[in-house]
Design goal:
The chain is α/β, with parallel strands linked by helices. The chain contains 11 helices and 14 strands. A 6-stranded mixed β-sheet has the order 6-7-8-3-9-10, sandwiched between helices. The protein has a 4-stranded antiparallel β-sheet with strand order 2-1-4-5, covered by helices on one side. Strands 12-13-11-14 form a 4-stranded antiparallel β-sheet. The protein is elongated, with a radius of gyration of 21 Å. The mean pLDDT is 91.
Length: 281
């Protein structure tokens, strides 16, 4: 069953357009939502939750249209954003006491387990927490009402490597328990560590939505010297850019093989950089 299906989402701003965004997230899947800053990732997430009113399209959660079952759906999802703000001077226990009233499925046992696991002290205020601990607290609130789908808007942004790694462990554990995660980020190494699939938004449009391994296997990376840049080779290259020695570019693996060029597997970050370069050329 699909946890989320996004169909034809559109939003028009004076200087930016989100156009016909469509993708899906299966139950228990971690889907990475990637793209450079300003590509439309946050706008997409806000449109899903009606925090920004889309001009067209719809979001279907667990087989139900958000427009007609908003309250029911919001009981089953959690939204976590990097840099999320709580009442800075309120103790966590007080914030939790208010939050739990909105969720009939709130589970105090789960909350206590999460606070123990994440080493959260309910006597502290958000101002006294690090950025990573604030994200863990937001996740605790989402997990404590048994959210079936998490929408995460750059939750690891600005965190140190150890804190990021801890959060990725948590995401993988939740996925194994059947929780679905839509994970917006520009830190591609995080996705290579935990994502099942990626949806790549470029200039407000979905450039690709596929399993991560399938997406990456469609590209290979070349390191080329000036002498190798024949017209035949250039015609096959994607997003050629200068390197310390020569040039780098993407190429379809079958094209590299046909031309006898030695190519290396391309990681997600390399693919994004060269595709964005191609887009600008």
């Amino acid at each position: 069953m699909q946890a989320l299906a996004v169909r034809g989402l559109c939003k028009q701003y004076p200087a930016f357009t989100l156009s016909d965004v469509s993708f899906s997230v299966e139950e228990g899947q971690i889907m990475g939502l990637i793209g450079r800053n300003g590509a439309g990732k946050t706008t997409t997430l806000k449109c899903l939750l009606n925090l920004v009113h889309p001009d067209a399209g719809e979001a279907v959660f667990f087989g139900k249209r958000f427009a007609s079952a908003e309250l029911e759906i919001k009981q089953q999802i959690g939204y976590v954003a990097g840099g999320i703000d709580f009442y800075g001077k309120k103790r966590l226990d007080a914030i939790t006491s208010v939050t739990k009233r909105f969720y009939p499925t709130w589970d105090d046992a789960v909350y206590q387990e999460c606070t123990r696991r994440f080493e959260l002290d309910g006597r502290k205020t958000p101002e006294q927490l690090s950025a990573g601990m604030r994200v863990k607290y937001a996740l605790t609130l989402a997990m404590s009402h048994h959210a079936r789908l998490l929408l995460l808007d750059e939750p690891t942004s600005g965190l140190d490597p150890v804190s990021r790694d801890e959060l990725l462990d948590i995401f993988l554990g939740l996925s194994r328990e059947g929780v679905s995660i839509l994970f917006s980020t520009h830190i591609t190494s995080d996705l290579e560590r935990c994502a099942d699939g990626i949806t790549y938004i470029r200039r407000g449009k979905v450039a690709a939505s596929a399993p991560l391994n399938k997406f990456c296997s469609g590209y290979a990376c070349l390191n080329l010297t000036e002498n190798q840049l024949t017209d035949t080779v250039k015609a096959r290259l994607i997003g050629m850019k200068p390197a310390k020695v020569g040039y780098t570019a993407l190429i379809a693996p079958e094209d590299a093989q046909a031309m006898g060029l030695r190519a290396e597997p391309a990681g997600l970050e390399t693919i994004m950089i060269h595709l964005e370069k191609e887009d600008a050329q």
